[in-house]
Design a protein that fits this description.
Number of helices: 10
Number of strands: 6
Radius of gyration: 21 Å
CATH class of the largest domain: Alpha Beta
CATH superfamily of the largest domain: Response regulator
Shape: elongated
């Protein structure tokens, strides 16, 4: 099991609960911070002391207060922590449940685990820590997360939806795609793609489709 873990969480109740959960796994050193800047400093100091942290458990969202911070949230912290210690394992512990957002955290930041706050989160967090220690990634078995794993959006799909959300008509989207040598770019192919997306998300029309993908965090 990991010997040294750092928890970055700005709410007392969650910070205490996570620490208790981690300690139940017989982790030797469990440190806590309430600010991302403090978390990065601890990671840096631990490296200099030759006793680095093996796992970071961090929320994504941190509320601002009187104290000015350079790192504004979990994403900033993970990016900087990776620069300092590329081998550091990372678990996100968050209320976030949008699949696209979670997938981005794995793809872009190479996190090792995601646990959704809520029912059974202590049990899920223990599973995540154990699984990651054994060399595998982990995503919590949370219904709200699984339900959002509906459709694998391609870069083309996302670009198409972004253009429409910015007020482009389908004809204007066609011109844009052709101008930028993006294929397929015919009006019929665009409509067919939108029809597939509407069906996959059970949207009645393109307006509802855009509302859904914005809510899911896809664009």
């Amino acid at each position: 099991m990991f010997k040294k873990i750092l928890i970055a969480e700005d709410f007392d109740s969650y910070n205490i609960a996570v620490k208790k959960t981690v300690e139940e796994l017989n982790v030797s050193v469990v440190d806590q911070v309430f600010y991302c800047d403090d978390a990065l400093l601890k990671i840096q100091h631990a490296l200099l002391a030759g006793a680095p942290y093996e796992l970071l458990i961090s929320d994504l969202s941190f509320n601002s207060d009187y104290r000015e911070q350079r790192l504004l949230g979990g994403e900033d912290l993970i990016q900087e922590a990776r620069k300092e210690q590329p081998s550091l394992k990372v678990i996100i512990f968050s209320i976030e449940n949008r699949f696209h957002k979670i997938k981005t955290m794995f793809d872009k930041y190479q996190i090792n685990g995601f646990v959704s706050k809520g029912r059974n989160d202590a049990k899920e967090l223990k599973k995540a820590i154990t699984t990651i220690y054994e060399g595998q990634n982990y995503i919590s078995n949370n219904d709200s997360v699984q339900q959002n794993n509906i459709y694998e959006f391609s870069e083309y799909d996302i670009n198409l939806l972004k253009l429409l959300s910015q007020g482009y008509t389908q004809k204007e989207v066609e011109h844009y795609l052709k101008k930028n040598n993006i294929t397929p770019n015919s009006e019929s192919s665009i409509e067919k793609r939108l029809a597939i997306l509407r069906e996959s998300l059970d949207a009645k029309d393109t307006k509802q489709l855009l509302s859904i993908v914005i809510e899911l965090g896809i664009i």
